[in-house]
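Give me the fold.
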Amino acid sequence: MSELVKRRKNMKKVLEGVVVSDKTDKTAVVKVSYRVKHPVYGKIITRSKKFMIHDENNECKNGYFVRIMETRPLSKRKRWRLTEILKKNE
């Protein structure tokens, strides 16, 4: 049981989203959208959040669909890194 808890503790969060900015060096901004149900009215609403990610080789361009993974703090606002590019917008 304790081994299972340790493994769960070390698992990192993985998200997928669209690159909305790639202007800075080795950094990109990814917009992750998710759908939630309104607590009172029951309507499905699309919410989104932006994450600054570390892109070591400057591979990301605007419009790319990417997978990101949680990592140690790399700067004041960067806590995510690029795992893979899922779809290029060519």
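Confidence is low (pLDDT under 50) at residues 1-5.
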